[in-house]
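ping. complex inputs:
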Amino acid sequence: MSLKDKLLSSHIVFQESLDPDSPIYDVRSEAIKTFEAEGFPTKRDENWKYTSLNSLLKKEYSIRTKTESALDFKDVKQYFIHDIDTYNIVFIDGVFSSYLSSTTHEGIDVCTMNSAINKPKYKQIIEVYFNKIAKDESLNALNTAFAKEGAYVYIPKGKVADKPIQIVHLSTGAEEAMFLQPRNLIIAEENTEVQIIERHQSLSSNAVFTNSVTEIYAGKHANVDYYKIQNDRLEASLIDNTEIEQHDNSVVSVHTFSFGGDIVRNNLNFYQKGEHIDSILKGVTIIEGKQHVDHNTLVHHITPNCESHQDYKGIFAEKSTGVFNGKVVVEKEAQKTNAYQSNNNILIDDQATINSKPQLEIFADDVRCSHGCTIGQLDESALFYLQSRGIAKKEARALLMYAFANTVLSSVRLPQLKQRITKQIAKKIGVSIGFEI
Amino acid sequence: MLSVKNLHAGIEEKEILKGINLDIKAGEVHAIMGPNGSGKSTLSAVIAGKEEYEVNKGEIELDGNSILEMDPEERAHEGIFLSFQYPVEIPGVSVTNFIKAAINQTRKAKGLEDMPASDMLKKIKEKSELLEIDRKFLSRSLNVGFSGGEKKRNEIFQMAMLEPKLAILDETDSGLDIDALRIVANGVNKLRSEDNAVLVITHYQRLLEYIVPDVVHVLVDGKIVKTGGKELALELEEKGYDWLKAETV
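pong. complex structure:
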């Protein structure tokens, strides 16, 4: 049976287990119809031209975990930013681990989607926000149809999250191949501030295929920083759908650090629904082997006087492949838009590939949109400079790549995270000199 | 110290240096002047070992040993330093950390341990004072957002830290205002000794008022067409290069 058929039949069973009074019962039923009609995307879809899911769809996945696993924190500590105090929402094979988590309901809600969906006191919020931002397309719909568990973060008007929040999805390999669909909902109402770090991590060599959806709502003057750490094992694939709606004067930044995985696809969509909004999209991709990372971004400038800043850097070694498809749409009403996009890539080996495609659709006449894309090798003059200071060629190359990637980190506002990522970049590239690692 | 003999070099098929002879002794300052495109920067890059240049004929020796087969980093370890016209920016690596790395790589190549941290700090303090560089500057990312003057000062700071046998200053005066020029030149002068030598490459005579050369060479179309004392620089300033070009025809 194909994965699609398997999912469709398993949805019938899933639906029977659900409470018809749930605020999202009908939403799920509608969603499965969308998925049934559209199916998994193929390379025939313009948006999926350079990323094929074929190799993933062939596997026999378990859709639900049969055995619940427990983990000791010390065994997974390395996957957390553990030198700062944070709220943690942790899932093991898709199941919430209260033991590894540290949630709150004091002033703000940091808990699980499951409890938010099922508790009457959240009913109204769920009705207002759930599945309102996510585009109605097949992968989002598939996730919606099975939406059950994930992180739920609600920052009510005027509140500041007192600690960063870590959302960590662990998979143990209890099943030979696992299909996971976490669903996160982040609501930052007017005048709020929150910082979130998300990570998907497989702990075994068994296959994991994750189709994650995160909706982020940023109210007026909200400030949301979202960091994605993608440094998974070679058997783990991820489709990360992140959909963001912003209102007046809000600032939302999403940083995506892609250092590992089998096939990683990021669908990152920003919708600006107010004035004086700033949307920040940053990414560093460093991969090798046969790894594949695809960044598909959209910034939809709907209203006037807003900005967007995109900066994606990639270093591709061996036979790895990268895709950057950055779309910026400026609607007719969105005058005085300032949209900036840049995508720079270094191909280290002859067989590495990057497909970079900036797409600008501008319907307003008084805007500033700039975009730049480069694909190249390391600058020989820069290499010579370092060598002439006594630094051996291999080290000099590493140092230059480090410098190239590191510029993206200037906007990371959590110093401990910045340091961690800096070290990861240095380690990945093989820099051993020039700073304390 | 440095001996260049009948050096022919260029890029791909194009010959840029057409038989250069140069002999620089310890304790001396030589200047190479010449019009744009005469091969000045090529000469400095070839001495420092830039790979894209091919040496077709001739020899470059440092203290009697050929350096032609050496990589740029090996030449640096042997004591050749090139101050760049356009230094590279390295975000995320501070001036201090970079210079530490450079010093320790050189020490490593010589089989020495890393320089003890206290010695390093002392040296950094001493040399940065010499070049009127303040502490904040040292913790900034290498060359990132530096003004033209800061970049050049940083180059000379690195030179001071690395203490090369032969320092080549490639157009160090370009883009400097008079104050920055004075500080840079002052730094270079204080670093001069009986054991090292300086090769100043410049288009203008201005820098040579501050770093006074023992010998001035004029490079035109890949050849040294005239060699003289410091007064030659003044003559060039006055007459330009055309009279020399005419002479070579």
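Chain B touches chain A through 36 residues (CB under 8 Å).
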